Amino acid sequence: MTIRRNLRQLLCALCCASALAAQGDEAPDFSTWLAQFRQEALAQGISQATLDAALADVQRLPEVIERDRRQPEFIQTFWTYLDKRLSPWRIERGQALLREHRALLDEVQTRYGVPAGVLVAFWGLETNYGSYLGDFPIPAALATLAFDPRRAGFFRHELLQSLRIIEAGHVTAADMKGSWAGAMGQVQFMPSTYLRYAVDGDGDGHKNLWTSLPDALHSAAHFLRELGWQPGELWGREVRLAADFDWESAHPKVKKPVSAWARLGVTQADGSPLPDSDLAGAIVLPQGHAGPAFLVYRNFEVIMGWNRSLNYALAVGHLSDRLLGLPELGNGRDADNRPLSREQVMEMQLLLAARGLDVGAPDGLPGSQTRLAIRAWQKAAGVPVDGYASVGLLEQLQAAP
């Protein structure tokens, strides 16, 4: 009863905090803030013409703040996430585009060492192969987020970088559109990423990630190479774990040579032996011990450098394999696939905290501190130590004395 009461109090506090944040959003005057920003941009070399083109009629976009504030009601499981993104259509369309753009993709792979399938997988997941780039005006979206106090410094910098792109003539202010959070083009670069890694792939003097596929693919490959992509190495593979596998060793920071994992009973997904290799890899379990298992290598860390979501990185890797005709995942389909609500995660955090485990501030999101607490409880309870927040785990905690 105490846990439930604390849960209601925390939810009430979160609602109050959101209301206060919304009130705080309105405290300064946007037009005054924008005038001050324009003066700063002028002092940093942005021309009056660019400022007029990008910011003259800019209004604050309430939908951007709404999306920024929106928390998911349910936390998607790995299988739900993957199945939604790796539809038969997306796989077939990607294979067709691999054939259609073979010459360009071969050229990019030769220059940067990034395989064609990997590039097309990023393209497919970021914008559905360029079919939806986002329709928010980037300067207005970034100005809205820069004015908002939550991450003002980050978005103020990105807004200034977006103006530098317009100033350089790579895209007009009117054509600079993208996601509500400021990501742009067929591979969804933030402005700072654009300025560091965008490439003029078609030789026309512009870096146009919106309508030039050569520019977009060269830029994506350049970014991945600079993040540390290793030519000739896999991103990872699905594996099968032995019945007596030490679940605590399934962690991105626990790295062993492939040969060492093989000695511990790890096999390929179909049960065949792993190759004899000294390449270091880690075991990751995106849906806990009952779900699929992956042995991931250095290139997986590069994918994570693009997007820190484990599910996203695994989806990119697996889509790149499927585009080349490799089979779908073979194990872990019987894992509990019930989604966790934010309220359930918060109850889990309170139950762990009541047992003396540090979950940080209970917020309804299973972050790193919560996962560490889950591991500690699992170890004490004698159940597989996978750190995975699930409905089943919550039920175990509820039933435990």
Could you describe the 3D structure shown?
It is a single chain. The chain is 53% helix and 7% strand. The chain folds into three domains: 28-71 and 134-184, Bacterial muramidase (Helicase, Ruva Protein, domain 3, Orthogonal Bundle), CATH 1.10.8; 76-133 and 226-337, Lysozyme (Orthogonal Bundle), CATH 1.10.530.10; 340-399, no CATH class. It is globular. A hairpin with an 8-residue loop joins strand 7 and strand 8 (293-296). With 401 residues, the chain is α+β, with helices and mostly antiparallel strands.
Provide a concise account of the structure shown:
The chain contains 18 helices and nine strands.
Describe the structure using short key phrases.
globular; alpha+beta; Helicase, Ruva Protein, domain 3; 18 helices; 401 residues; 3 domains; 9 strands; two-stranded antiparallel sheet; five-stranded antiparallel beta sheet; Lysozyme
Tell me the helix content.
40-55%
How does the overall form come out from the CA principal axes? globular
Can you tell me the number of structural domains? 3
Radius of gyration: 24 Å
CATH architecture of the largest domain: Orthogonal Bundle
Beta percentage is: 5-15%
Number of strands: 9
Structural class: alpha+beta
**Residue-averaged pLDDT, rounded?**
93
Q: Tell me the span between the first and last alpha carbons.
A: 14 Å
CATH class of the largest domain reads: Mainly Alpha
What does the secondary structure layout of this molecule look like, with pairings?
Elements: H1 2-26, H2 30-43, H3 48-55, H4 62-69, E1 74-75, H5 78-85, H6 88-100, H7 102-112, H8 116-127, E2 136-137, H9 138-147, H10 152-167, E3 177-178, H11 191-197, H12 213-227, E4 236-240, E5 255-257, H13 258-263, E6 267-268, E7 280-284, E8 293-296, H14 298-306, H15 310-323, E9 340-341, H16 342-354, H17 368-381, H18 391-399
Antiparallel strand pairs: 1-9, 2-3, 4-6, 4-8, 5-7, 7-8
Helix pairs in contact: 1-16, 5-15, 6-8, 7-12, 8-15, 9-10, 10-11, 11-12, 14-15, 16-18
